[in-house]
Predict the structure of Bro-N domain-containing protein.
Amino acid sequence: MRQDLSRPLVDAFFLWLAAQAKRVSSKTDLGKAMSYMLIPERDLYRLVMRSKLPSAERFEEWVVGTVLPTIRKTGSYVRGEEAFDVTTEAGLAAATMHVMAALQAKADGFRAMFEAAKPKADAFAVIEEATGSMTVTEAAKALKAKRADLYGSLEHRKWVTKGKNRQATAAALRPGYMDTRTHTDTRGRVHSTPVVTPKGLAYLARIKAQKRA
């Protein structure tokens, strides 16, 4: 914590803190003498108040913005039906634990929101990366799916015909989900291959995201 205090305050503050601390001597179970410093609780709070750490600043804001005004008005810190008498160490500890639990619950809530939104974010990423129509093999790779599984899905939706020589169907061509790519081989024969358009890829990505959500 020493590093997050402003430099001009460091030396003077720690000299003052050392003067406030109480040295205590004791012996271990093996009879070895040892000594340690006890810092008064009030001085520990002073140290926290001077800290620039985000957690310390939140603690300070909670104390000066919520706890102290509530004590001034009611004589104790109250939340709903629970009362924390922060004038005692036990009450302050209980109030602190309550705030920590609330912060943890909020963090868990944000984590759950992130996990729920991740499939949709993945779907948008697939859409943004699409630069044109893709073969079914390329579309399967973009969707992180197996080629055979994607073909099965396209057949189920009647986007392509069944069988060895699959072709895009009129039901997929009309709305623009599929297209046909042609090429001529070295013997002059024309071949057609069904391809997934960016619109079709976006639709498939959304369907996949909904299934994962």
Summary: The radius of gyration is 33 Å.
